[in-house]
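Bench notes, afternoon.
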Amino acid sequence: MMIIIDAGHGGTDPGACAGGIREKDWTLEVSLHQQSFLNNLGIQTVLTRTSDKGLTPIERTNLVKRCGGSICISNHFNAGGGKGAEVIHSIYSDGKLAKAAGHALTSAGMPLRRVFSRKGRDDRDYYFMHRLTGSVETLIVEYGFLDSTEDMAKLRALRLKLAESVALAVVKKTQSVYVVQAGAFQEKKRALTLCTELREKGYDAIIKEER
């Protein structure tokens, strides 16, 4: 399995801007983090850009079509009034993968505004990342609004976690994931100590409370 990760905008196209944040910078940050996260799970990834590079729609979508992956996560941040995350899927998709990503965002702490698709005037997909990426199933993920005070508070603290949640939702929806438990403790302090040790060794360790 290979997942394509698209860092939206770049180069002379900053994307949405608010509060001193440029969308292109955060999309690159979360995309690089997603790549590392997925690679640690043993998932192959390809990035459309790894630096502040501009891509035309044709250049971007050709990269997506030609790299051999079947799923693309196109990372974005919104602006223009509103709040909450959005996940946009192709009009030809059943929307199940997009809904799974939306549920993951909610679980990770960002309220979901909507999951939707959009037709253009020619009855084809409105967004070129859907219209021009061929058979690749592309999810456009808008993690929140840069011009929303509520969203920005969450994005500043949680954007990497949100990106991980989307990536993991895609993996879980498309293939099996095997979880290894390293220990179980009654004292939270001991769990935190082990979690810290594992992270220092490069493992993606989390703490899950069970009752």
